[in-house]
Write a structure and sequence with these properties.
Layout lengths: L1 E5 L8 E7 L3 H8 L16 E7 L2 E9 L4 H14 L7 E5 L6 H13 L21 E5 L5 H23 L7 H15 L2 E5 L1 H6 L3 H7 L7 E7 L7 E6 L1 E5 L18 H15 L5 E11 L11 E2 L7 E2 L7 H15 L4 E6 L3 H7 L4 E5 L2 H14 L3 E3 L17 E2 L8 H10 L8 E5 L5 E2 L8 E2 L4 H9 L3
Parallel strand pairs: 1-6, 2-4, 2-5, 5-6, 9-11, 9-14, 10-11, 13-17, 14-18, 15-16
Antiparallel strand pairs: 3-4, 7-8, 8-11, 12-13, 15-18, 19-20
């Protein structure tokens, strides 16, 4: 898509979109419609409402956003335009923002509009006359200062989120560990960050034994992906780790339900990969090192066994209680490797880790665990601002004993139907080498789910805008 900045709505685009905040709809409509009026009983600017009309042969779409819209609701409202009103749009569209719209709200609207073009029908045969919005011209009318910059940011945010969608939505015969590695290399070349890929042999020489144990049951080779973005004006160094299980059968503790959705078990990796792309594209003045341990957790004669004791990069021995608690094993090696080899100021991991987090928060927010009030509060605030909410759960030391093993230094699962998300976080904490500013985000309930934009569960790119807001709040 291409943005054009306009001074008025005279451009002959096929569709004029006028978003209305509920604070003063009558006055805005009177100004934007050049004297035409709309009966308030038909449209009053209430949230999640819309109204179509035609004036002098031109289609006009009014979008109601309510009195106090947040960025997430505005993004969703604008995503509906192309997702649900494709017939209204031809080669161009004009969006006319009133003076009530802040830069932040305009950015969210433009991001959402672009997301509306996304479809998960990757393998469907193309129908005759099917619309392709890749070359759509979007004319933007706004008195906001720096609207050019806003449009550029919106384009880059939308591009990153769409990549986040695709990485989760594509099937596991496409998104393999090798696919993620190649994706990182291609994005690094385009956006200016370096990428190092450890194959199985290199991972073994680096002592990534827990990571390799999970990969043993799959014919798809594991890839340990390291991305490094550096900025000469950086004053801080952020470390990210994303769980990259491209498909999770559960291993020998095979899943008995819901396996069809397990292509989404790399939602944490998708967030980290897409966020790295976005941070580099925006040239943010930070240093970033991001690691994605990418594996498939499958079953064959070489699969790792329940009761087996395995090693780890941190030197801790791990008793495997459940092979379906595999995500924490690859994260353990990712966290340890990052801390031991890079001097990061803040350390954050994202993972679709436990059903327990879903049981606690449902599909409303991610679970937040941290050993630092400062980073916890910053992430929580960024979540509220971005609409990608996270909320803290306790990390009390009394939970640590649940992970004690008689035969090894630690076990990977406590085997009880209680406090699953918390004990998983305590397991990960054992591998951060006492890093003082670490946060773990369990995003199992929010990385993949039902949506009004698809008939099946789909990716959300949860974490991309959360991480962007978290980082930008510190600049």
């Amino acid at each position: 898509m291409q943005f054009n900045i306009q001074s008025d709505s005279s451009t002959n685009s096929s569709l004029l979109i006028i978003p209305i905040l509920g604070t003063n709809p009558e006055a805005v409509l009177k100004e934007k419609l050049a004297g035409f009026t709309v009966n308030p009983s038909l449209f009053s600017g209430k949230k999640d409402t819309s109204y179509q009309l035609e004036i002098d042969g031109r289609l006009i779409l009014l979008i109601g956003l309510g009195d106090k819209p947040d960025v997430a609701s505005i993004e969703k409202s604008f995503r509906r335009v192309l997702s649900k009103n494709k017939d209204l749009v031809e080669t161009s569209a004009t969006i006319d923002f009133s003076d009530d719209f802040s830069t932040e709200l305009i950015e969210s609207a433009l991001v959402g509009f672009q997301l509306g073009a996304y479809s998960i029908g990757f393998f469907k045969q193309k129908k005759e006359g099917q619309k392709d919005f890749s070359n759509l011209e979007i004319n933007v009318i706004s008195s906001s200062q720096g609207i050019d910059k806003t449009c550029d940011r919106a384009a880059k945010i939308a591009a990153a989120k769409i990549e986040g969608f695709k990485l989760v939505d594509l099937p596991p015969n496409v998104v393999t560990p090798e696919y993620l590695a190649n994706w990182a290399v291609e994005q690094g070349a385009e956006h200016g960050f370096t990428v190092t890929i450890f194959d199985e042999e290199k991972a073994k020489s680096e002592g990534l034994d827990a990571f390799l144990a999970v990969a043993r049951g799959s014919a798809k080779a594991p890839k340990f992906i390291i991305m490094e973005y550096r900025n000469p004006e950086a004053k801080s160094h952020v470390g990210l780790v994303g769980k990259g299980v491209t498909f999770d059968t559960g291993g020998l503790n095979i899943k008995t339900q819901g396996m069809v959705y397990m292509k989404s078990d790399m939602g944490g990796a998708a967030a980290v990969l897409a966020a790295t792309q976005l941070i580099a594209a925006l040239k943010l003045p930070i240093n970033l090192t991001a690691i994605v341990p990418a594996v498939e957790n499958s079953v064959d004669k070489d699969a790792y066994l329940p009761s087996q004791v395995i090693g780890s990069h941190a030197g801790l021995s791990i008793e495997v209680i459940d092979t379906d608690a595999e995500g924490r094993l690859i994260l353990a090696d990712g966290l340890s490797y990052l801390v031991k080899n890079y001097q990061v100021d803040q350390l954050i991991d994202l993972a679709t880790l436990t059903g327990s987090s879903v049981g606690t928060f449902g599909y409303e927010c991610g679970a937040l665990f941290s050993n630092s009030d400062a980073i916890s509060n910053s992430l929580r605030e960024a979540g509220m601002q971005s609409g990608e909410k996270v909320w803290p759960l306790p990390m009390w030391e009394s939970y640590r004993s649940e992970m004690d093993s008689e035969i090894a230094d630690i076990k990977n699962y406590h085997g009880k139907p209680i406090a699953g998300a918390i004990t998983a976080a305590k397991f990960l904490e054992a591998f951060i080498h006492e890093h003082p500013s670490w946060a773990h985000l369990d995003i199992a309930g929010v990385a993949f789910g039902d949506s009004e934009f698809t008939k099946t569960k789909s990716g959300t790119a949860f974490g991309v805008q959360l991480l962007l807001k978290f980082i930008e709040n510190q600049l």
